[in-house]
Amino acid sequence: MSARRRGAKPKAPLKLVGKKDADQLIEALKLYEAKEYKKSVKILDIILKKDHQNIDALTLKGLNLLSLSEKDEAALYVKNATGKIEGTKASPICCHLLGIYMRTTKDYPASIKWFKAALENGSSNNQIYRDLATLQSQIGDFKAALVSRKKYWESFMGYRANWTSLAIAQDLNGERQQAIGTLSQFEKLAEGKISGAELYEHNECLIYKNDIMFRQAGANPDKLKNVLKHLNDIEANVFDKFALLERKASIYMKMGELKKASIVYRHLIKRNPDNFKYYNLLEVALGVKNNNKLRKAIYEKLQQFYPNCEPPKFIPLTFIQDEAELTRKLKEYVVPQLKRGVPATFSNVKPLYIKRTNAVAPKLQNIVLEYFATLDSTKDPIPYIWTCYYLAQHFLFLKDVQSAQEYINRAIVHTPTLVEFYIMKGRILKHMGLLDEAAATLEEGRQLDFQDRFINCKTVKYFLRANNIEKAVEIASVFTKNDNAPNGIKDLHVVEASWFIVEQAEAYYRLYLENEKKLAELTDADDEEEGKENGSSRNQLEWDSQKYQGLALKRFYAITKFYKQFEDDQLDFHSYCMRKGTPRAYLEMLEWGKTLYARPMYVRAMKGAAKIYFNINSKRKASHSLETSDDTTTHNTKKLKKESGALKKRKEKERQLVAAYPDDEDKDVFGENLINTETPLESFNKNFYSDYCKEVRETEKDYVLDFEYEYANGKLVLCFSALSKYGKIYGTEDAIFGAMAVTLILATKQSAVFDDIAKKVVTRAFETDYPSFPINESSNDGFDWLKYFSDKYGTSNMESLLFLKRMDSLDMGQIITLIQKNLPNYEPYVQKNITQYEL
């Protein structure tokens, strides 16, 4: 036999000896479909004994083992099977099974490849097209999804879901007319055959068709008339009357028929008189947006029609300019609420405080204080306590914490059994920088009602802000499922309680910073005897520092897992929404998914992780050589070994308390592997930043973080790009822009350790785009860049000063002095955070 023959891979057809083996494979496949995985494996073992090269049997066994949660062994069998396949030349069954395996393991591109291969290799199972379309939609390949949807529709034209899914695919690819035609064609086929159970699905498809027509019409009057005609035709069959009326009003507005639009908006207000949006649109339709006199008359009339509704009373307060009239209206709005004891009175007027602080706040203060003076705490208990509550919130908004504390204490003394007062008092104490006292106050309020989840969560949050993680976890565990666990940490991860996990991560990071300071103080100590005395303390601090940093990063990383799960959860909805006939909800989900990794909670976790990764990177750069770093690590390891017994016991106990996942799922409980990464910037990009960059809008991107990341990578040209984009959004007069620019200019000086070509490119870019900067002074050691920055941008912007401190390009002592000089301008809470964790 030739060498070429010996090295050849098995051919695609099944290598079965006879009909009996073929029947056994089919039986094993049926058992897999019936979820009898162990029985299926037994039959496959018989086949593999006869022919261990059988690709179909290897693949099916891997799929069975995966279903039995034996992931590693399953991966070996599948790897063995794919290694014997030349390209994608395997049997249709094998390719289909590989597609299912890859989909289950969330390798969607590979799954698509094998599903396609199954069809190309002769599979007659047209259901594969549906799975293929679902996966292509999941990865955003809607062009390919359209082809698959059409193929599947051609095979199963008797199901409405297939017509709907085809129309959606056409719509997503910009083929709006074809989508309208598809929906219209099915309407003709189904005319007179819609059952009662199908009416909702039918109504959704009708309004969806109108959505497509409306988007296609643009501003064309003739097309808009057709959209309106279609809307009137389907009105009787549409259940969502609000959407129908809103669409009708929008069409009238686009066509310039404002009077008709105003009639529709009045109808909408009649149906829902508490919707502020309808009132604003009515103003636009009536053309009175810039005429306060007419606006006031309209709202006086509307107030007569809807005397118990908020918008007609509140909206005039946003534009009335006459001092006497505004005072009278404010009194008419606020005092009745206080008389009734409405807890949300301040929340109702807070938008006025934000938009018209100078005009509204003094008037409301006088009004409420005058009313408060008329109250008797005994005769008017309800108005008294809620007026105290209002005044506490009022003075806290104005940053008069002493007055705020005085009024909330009055309320508590009068009625010490209302939880809301303790929450408010805790909030005031937090703004005063008294975090421990704030948490204790919340705990006092929690003791009043152990069944209140809100006060429980609020108390947990305050204890975490006070860095009392142990107490916070204890309280949080009251409402968690603590099976086989000492606390609720695992359950909080299972239920994806992002708020708790991020707060805990930030608390761990603060504790890490505190321990680092203590370690630095020990290192600076010169007394040898004191050093020996503190040897045990040093080892403990070193472990605590490493533990807190690792746990902080571990918790931040848990947030990314949640969002990955959110992304994966969309897979089922690509088919579910078609079956249930909810195309509008499906399109909303797609829009939501486009910015999934730009959501506030994810961004917060990413920024927290960035601090840790950048810190690890800067420490690595500070080490002059790999040997020095290794020596330090060895030295620390020897120190830890001295107390290995005590530390081991302590670590084991702590491991149980901080474990977020079952032992078999997580071998890195303390996040040690995460913080010991050799490539911190690459890890940050892979775990957090790349997903964010793919989805965040250009106008919403955090260019300061982008600048810091690229600066740490030594990519000055990309730093300039971040600077330029920041300047376009916030202006070149912004202090943070100035701080970024000065940092980048200093990076171009001759002694800076950056690429020379990049320096020249950035220098030329500054000369072209921002010639006002003294770029020629970059290498002049005598030029005072901090003075230049202070003169041009001022020193009142704390964020810009903290940025300069982080970048460490200017005199650190002078920057810290400027920060300390500005601290009194901020509330105690902010002062404490900056002093403890930034300086």
TrEMBL record:
GO terms for cellular component: NatA complex. GO terms for molecular function: protein-N-terminal amino-acid acetyltransferase activity; ribosome binding. The keyword Repeat applies. InterPro entries: NatA_aux_su (IPR021183), TPR-like_helical_dom_sf (IPR011990), TPR_rpt (IPR019734). Residues 636-652 have a biased composition (Basic residues). The keyword Repeat applies. Pfam families: NatA_aux_su. Keywords: Repeat, TPR repeat. Coiled coil: none annotated. Residues 624-653 are annotated as: Disordered. SMART domains: TPR. The lineage of its organism: Eukaryota, Fungi, Dikarya, Ascomycota, Saccharomycotina. TPR repeats lie at residues 242-275. SUPFAM superfamilies: TPR-like. It comes from Naumovozyma castellii (Yeast). This is N-terminal acetyltransferase A complex subunit NAT1. It comes from the Eukaryota.
